[in-house]
Write a structure and sequence with these properties.
By secondary structure, this protein is an alpha+beta fold. The chain is built from 5 helices and 8 strands, in the order E-H-E-H-E-E-H-E-E-E-E-H-H. Strands 1, 2, 3, 4, 5, 6, 7 and 8 form an 8-stranded mixed beta sheet that branches.
Amino acid sequence: MEKQVIVFATNNKNKLSEVRAILGERFEIKSLGEIGCNEELPETHNTLEENALEKALYVRQHYGYDCFADDTGLEVDALCGQPGVFSARYANMEDAEYDDPQMDKGQDHDSEANMRKLLYKMKGEENRRAQFRTVIALVYGGGEYMFHGVVKGEIATEKHGAEGFGYDPVFYPYLENPAIEEPKTLLPTTFAEMDGKEKNAISHRGRAVEQLVKWFADK
Protein backbone atom coordinates (compact mmCIF):
# COMPACT_ATOMS: atom_id res chain seq x y z
CA MET A 1 0.00 0.00 0.00
CA GLU A 2 1.28 3.45 -0.90
CA LYS A 3 2.43 5.46 2.08
CA GLN A 4 0.74 8.72 2.96
CA VAL A 5 2.92 11.76 2.29
CA ILE A 6 3.51 14.20 5.12
CA VAL A 7 5.97 17.07 5.11
CA PHE A 8 8.53 17.69 7.82
CA ALA A 9 9.17 21.43 7.53
CA THR A 10 12.96 21.28 7.37
CA ASN A 11 15.87 20.71 5.02
CA ASN A 12 18.18 19.76 7.88
CA LYS A 13 19.53 16.32 6.89
CA ASN A 14 20.26 15.39 10.51
CA LYS A 15 16.73 16.18 11.64
CA LEU A 16 15.26 14.36 8.63
CA SER A 17 17.26 11.20 9.26
CA GLU A 18 16.27 11.19 12.94
CA VAL A 19 12.56 11.53 12.17
CA ARG A 20 12.54 9.17 9.19
CA ALA A 21 14.14 6.49 11.37
CA ILE A 22 11.14 6.77 13.70
CA LEU A 23 8.21 7.53 11.35
CA GLY A 24 9.42 6.15 8.03
CA GLU A 25 7.52 2.85 8.15
CA ARG A 26 4.16 4.60 8.27
CA PHE A 27 4.68 7.77 6.22
CA GLU A 28 6.68 9.02 3.30
CA ILE A 29 8.40 11.95 4.99
CA LYS A 30 9.23 14.73 2.54
CA SER A 31 11.50 17.68 3.21
CA LEU A 32 10.81 21.25 2.17
CA GLY A 33 13.15 20.95 -0.81
CA GLU A 34 11.37 17.82 -2.00
CA ILE A 35 8.07 19.72 -2.32
CA GLY A 36 9.73 22.69 -4.02
CA CYS A 37 9.67 24.97 -0.99
CA ASN A 38 12.97 26.83 -1.15
CA GLU A 39 12.10 29.99 0.73
CA GLU A 40 12.97 30.69 4.36
CA LEU A 41 10.01 29.76 6.56
CA PRO A 42 8.79 32.50 8.90
CA GLU A 43 9.78 32.35 12.57
CA THR A 44 8.50 35.65 13.92
CA HIS A 45 7.46 34.71 17.45
CA ASN A 46 9.11 34.49 20.86
CA THR A 47 8.02 30.98 21.83
CA LEU A 48 8.87 27.56 20.44
CA GLU A 49 5.19 26.69 20.20
CA GLU A 50 4.27 29.72 18.08
CA ASN A 51 7.25 29.34 15.76
CA ALA A 52 6.61 25.65 15.13
CA LEU A 53 2.94 26.24 14.35
CA GLU A 54 3.73 29.21 12.12
CA LYS A 55 6.03 27.06 9.97
CA ALA A 56 3.59 24.14 9.69
CA LEU A 57 0.72 26.46 8.74
CA TYR A 58 2.84 28.17 6.11
CA VAL A 59 3.51 24.85 4.35
CA ARG A 60 -0.14 23.81 4.54
CA GLN A 61 -1.40 27.14 3.22
CA HIS A 62 1.16 27.56 0.42
CA TYR A 63 1.80 23.97 -0.68
CA GLY A 64 -1.30 22.03 0.38
CA TYR A 65 0.42 19.25 2.33
CA ASP A 66 -0.30 18.10 5.84
CA CYS A 67 2.82 19.08 7.72
CA PHE A 68 4.63 19.04 11.01
CA ALA A 69 7.33 21.47 12.05
CA ASP A 70 9.58 21.58 15.06
CA ASP A 71 11.30 24.28 17.02
CA THR A 72 13.94 23.44 19.58
CA GLY A 73 15.68 25.45 22.23
CA LEU A 74 18.52 24.87 24.65
CA GLU A 75 17.52 26.42 27.98
CA VAL A 76 20.38 26.99 30.42
CA ASP A 77 19.58 27.66 34.08
CA ALA A 78 22.55 29.95 34.76
CA LEU A 79 21.67 32.05 31.70
CA CYS A 80 18.03 32.53 32.76
CA GLY A 81 16.79 30.15 30.08
CA GLN A 82 18.92 31.47 27.25
CA PRO A 83 19.54 30.86 24.42
CA GLY A 84 16.05 29.31 24.29
CA VAL A 85 14.03 30.24 21.22
CA PHE A 86 17.11 31.98 19.80
CA SER A 87 19.35 28.88 20.08
CA ALA A 88 20.07 28.59 16.34
CA ARG A 89 20.99 32.29 16.13
CA TYR A 90 22.63 32.70 19.54
CA ALA A 91 25.99 33.89 18.19
CA ASN A 92 24.28 36.53 16.06
CA MET A 93 22.43 38.14 18.95
CA GLU A 94 23.79 41.54 19.95
CA ASP A 95 25.87 41.26 23.11
CA ALA A 96 27.99 44.13 24.43
CA GLU A 97 29.98 41.69 26.61
CA TYR A 98 30.92 39.25 23.87
CA ASP A 99 32.60 39.43 20.48
CA ASP A 100 33.76 36.49 18.37
CA PRO A 101 36.45 37.40 15.83
CA GLN A 102 36.18 33.90 14.28
CA MET A 103 32.52 34.29 13.38
CA ASP A 104 31.32 35.19 9.91
CA LYS A 105 28.90 37.98 10.81
CA GLY A 106 26.81 37.27 7.74
CA GLN A 107 26.27 33.59 8.55
CA ASP A 108 23.24 32.55 10.55
CA HIS A 109 22.77 29.16 12.23
CA ASP A 110 26.51 28.76 12.88
CA SER A 111 26.74 25.89 15.36
CA GLU A 112 30.44 26.33 16.07
CA ALA A 113 29.99 30.02 16.81
CA ASN A 114 26.94 29.28 18.97
CA MET A 115 28.92 26.79 21.05
CA ARG A 116 31.86 29.14 21.44
CA LYS A 117 29.55 31.82 22.81
CA LEU A 118 27.80 29.39 25.14
CA LEU A 119 31.08 28.06 26.56
CA TYR A 120 32.32 31.63 27.05
CA LYS A 121 29.14 32.59 28.89
CA MET A 122 29.39 29.48 31.08
CA LYS A 123 33.09 29.87 31.91
CA GLY A 124 33.59 29.35 35.66
CA GLU A 125 29.88 28.72 36.24
CA GLU A 126 29.17 25.98 38.80
CA ASN A 127 25.49 25.54 37.96
CA ARG A 128 25.65 23.92 34.53
CA ARG A 129 22.13 22.49 34.48
CA ALA A 130 20.23 22.86 31.23
CA GLN A 131 17.53 21.26 29.16
CA PHE A 132 16.78 20.74 25.50
CA ARG A 133 13.12 21.29 24.67
CA THR A 134 11.45 20.43 21.37
CA VAL A 135 7.95 21.40 20.29
CA ILE A 136 6.37 19.76 17.26
CA ALA A 137 3.34 21.41 15.70
CA LEU A 138 1.24 19.20 13.43
CA VAL A 139 -1.29 20.53 10.92
CA TYR A 140 -3.25 17.48 9.81
CA GLY A 141 -6.74 16.90 8.47
CA GLY A 142 -7.86 20.41 9.32
CA GLY A 143 -6.65 20.26 12.93
CA GLU A 144 -3.68 21.69 14.81
CA TYR A 145 -1.82 19.63 17.42
CA MET A 146 1.21 20.11 19.69
CA PHE A 147 3.72 17.58 21.02
CA HIS A 148 6.53 18.24 23.49
CA GLY A 149 9.82 16.57 24.37
CA VAL A 150 12.34 17.52 27.04
CA VAL A 151 15.69 16.10 28.10
CA LYS A 152 17.59 17.48 31.08
CA GLY A 153 21.34 17.57 31.44
CA GLU A 154 24.38 19.76 31.94
CA ILE A 155 26.64 21.92 29.79
CA ALA A 156 30.17 20.59 29.30
CA THR A 157 33.24 22.77 29.81
CA GLU A 158 34.49 21.89 26.32
CA LYS A 159 33.30 20.04 23.22
CA HIS A 160 33.30 16.24 23.08
CA GLY A 161 32.33 14.03 20.14
CA ALA A 162 31.79 14.44 16.43
CA GLU A 163 28.29 13.01 15.89
CA GLY A 164 24.98 14.86 15.99
CA PHE A 165 24.61 18.57 15.32
CA GLY A 166 23.88 21.89 16.98
CA TYR A 167 24.87 21.96 20.65
CA ASP A 168 25.24 18.16 20.90
CA PRO A 169 29.02 18.24 21.62
CA VAL A 170 28.52 20.36 24.76
CA PHE A 171 25.46 18.66 26.27
CA TYR A 172 25.63 15.77 28.75
CA PRO A 173 22.15 14.26 29.34
CA TYR A 174 20.99 12.89 32.66
CA LEU A 175 20.00 9.27 33.12
CA GLU A 176 16.41 9.97 34.06
CA ASN A 177 14.55 7.89 36.61
CA PRO A 178 10.73 8.10 36.60
CA ALA A 179 10.72 7.26 40.33
CA ILE A 180 12.35 10.57 41.25
CA GLU A 181 11.34 14.06 40.25
CA GLU A 182 14.82 15.38 39.46
CA PRO A 183 17.43 13.26 37.64
CA LYS A 184 20.78 12.96 39.43
CA THR A 185 23.03 10.71 37.35
CA LEU A 186 24.87 12.36 34.47
CA LEU A 187 25.64 10.11 31.52
CA PRO A 188 29.38 9.99 30.68
CA THR A 189 28.86 10.85 27.00
CA THR A 190 27.57 13.95 25.25
CA PHE A 191 24.91 13.65 22.56
CA ALA A 192 27.72 14.02 20.02
CA GLU A 193 29.44 10.90 21.39
CA MET A 194 26.32 8.76 20.86
CA ASP A 195 25.22 7.07 17.67
CA GLY A 196 21.88 8.04 16.17
CA LYS A 197 19.97 5.16 17.74
CA GLU A 198 21.27 5.91 21.23
CA LYS A 199 20.47 9.60 20.94
CA ASN A 200 16.97 9.05 19.49
CA ALA A 201 16.11 6.81 22.43
CA ILE A 202 16.48 9.64 24.95
CA SER A 203 16.56 12.90 23.02
CA HIS A 204 14.10 15.77 23.22
CA ARG A 205 13.22 15.43 19.53
CA GLY A 206 12.87 11.67 19.86
CA ARG A 207 10.46 12.11 22.77
CA ALA A 208 8.37 14.67 20.89
CA VAL A 209 8.27 12.41 17.83
CA GLU A 210 7.21 9.49 20.06
CA GLN A 211 4.20 11.54 21.13
CA LEU A 212 3.46 12.29 17.47
CA VAL A 213 3.69 8.59 16.60
CA LYS A 214 1.41 7.65 19.50
CA TRP A 215 -1.13 10.22 18.38
CA PHE A 216 -1.23 8.69 14.89
CA ALA A 217 -1.40 5.16 16.36
CA ASP A 218 -4.42 6.10 18.47
CA LYS A 219 -6.36 7.52 15.52
